[in-house]
Amino acid sequence: MELITKEYVSTHLPERSPMGHKGTFGKVYVLGGCTGYTGAPVYAGEAAMRTGSGLVYVGVPGEIYPIIAARCESAMAQPWPDYEELLKRMQSCGAVLLGPGLGQAEKTSQLVRDLLKELTVPVVLDADGINAVSTHMDVLENRRGITVLTPHEGEFARLDPTFVPGKDGPYRARAAADFVRQYGCTLVLKGPGTIAAAPGGPPLRNSTGGSGLAKGGSGDILAGMILSLLGQGASPGDAAACAVWLHGRAGDLAERELTAYAMTPADLLGWLPAAFKDLEEL
């Protein structure tokens, strides 16, 4: 099993043209949030900005829009429009993220499934986006566009009931590769030694990250980073692998300074610039 290394990431990130403008670097859309889970879409949107996106939209239910708008510093919050307008806005983007903090109400789960059937742009499914398809795997099986799923082991066991959480890395890599072959998607199986598996290549194991990442909100940041790289034109496999390494590296730097006990997802966002800077030291 191959490792995701600094060298790999430095050669697989999307190029950053010095002549570019905000339109050059991708427009992406985050759909998430519900009462009680207002932090998740904010973290995802801000992570997408920190990873290089030119424009980031964060669509949330109207009842929590004022909270989200006040918290987004760089991403642009907006209340959900009607379905047709929402679909139109998403189709105009380079990539879409469905799920962070979305909740599991049947209405929103159905919204995710309906969007997956119609969206032709790359989609990242995280958290409740994954839960929405876990009991309707035909939606995933029939989808023809690029799809990246980012489950932790518990979520993956809902997607694949044969999977046994807690086993070693080779077992996790085989399970990820089998899932990717069956559904034609890209999979990021989170946990110690996160696995990134994409069609047509071997599963890759991450070489960065520690227990400081094991806190609510860290996964939302990772999903936003993958979204950003997809929107900048990276292949799904490269977007997954590069985001996983950078996310883990930012965690390592935060943990070294703040300890695994005390670091927070907000600190993780703050250390992303240093993780990118680290790539220059080759």
List the helices and strands and how they pair.
Layout (H helix, E strand, L loop, with lengths): L1 E3 L1 H7 L14 E5 L7 H12 L4 E6 L4 H7 L4 E4 L3 H9 L3 E4 L7 H13 L4 E3 L2 H7 L2 H6 L4 E3 L3 H7 L9 H15 L2 E4 L5 E3 L6 E3 L11 H14 L4 H23 L6 H14 L4
Structure description:
The chain is of the alpha/beta class and 282 residues long. It is 48% helix and 13% strand. It is built from twelve helices and ten strands. The chain has a ten-stranded mixed beta sheet, sandwiched between helices. The mean pLDDT is 96.
Overview features:
12 helices; 10 strands; alpha/beta; ten-stranded mixed β-sheet; about 280 residues
Q: Runs with pLDDT <50, length 5+?
A: none
Query: Roughly how many Å is the radius of gyration?
Result: 17 Å
Overall shape: globular
Listing every helix as H and every strand as E from the N terminus to the C terminus, the arrangement reads: EHEHEHEHEHEHHEHHEEEHHH
Biggest sheet, open or closed, and with what strands and sense?
10 strands, mixed
State the distance separating the first and last CA atoms. Answer: 23 Å
The average pLDDT value, as a whole number, equals 96
Structural class: alpha/beta
